Amino acid sequence: MSQVVFQARDRASKGSGEAKKLRRTGRIPAVIYGRKGASMSIDLDARDFMNSLKGVSESTIVKVEVNGKVHEAFVKDTQRNIRDGAILHVDFYEIESNTLLRARVSLHIHGNPVGVREGGILETPLHDIEVECLPRDLPERLEVDIASLKVNQAIHVRDLALGAGVKLISNADQVVALVKFAKAEAAAAVEETVEAAAAAPGAAPAAAAAAPAADKKAEK
To answer: Which of 54-58, 72-76, 174-178 is the least confident region?
Structure first.
């Protein structure tokens, strides 16, 4: 995917009143925040921003061009109108090409697990992980193929291929995907285990094993 470029204008006027005026003209007020606390107020064309935003995630590095100068940044937050979903304000976080950054990378899980075809249940509790790397090494997303997962097998964060220069920050033991027995099958498996144990040579019935203990208590 080619890098997304947002065309923006420097915004001198601030305040809620000015922001409302901008929105009425089809513009979105926004701010670019720098690493050292500096910030720049800008505004964007609402239609162009909405069209370009498709496919942009928290780990997607975009370009914001303001008066001929390009800023590389993340789209950190978009405030929306709860009634119609229109974007009211955008926050960008500027990055520096030679400075390590931390970001959350989404997990794209795909494939039909073997275990599910055999009657198991798929669970995918994790949707993204946190990593640290230089901007040029940041993956936009991580592909996770779960097709070979069998029942009672799992993929953990430590199993993910992050690529050179990418350091894992999230807990490596977290489960990304798991195929487990359906409840009915799990209950049947437990019942079979109990029956097998009871039928084993030398196994004493639970009631018989408990009787001597009860007799000893009575003698006391």
So the answer is: 54-58
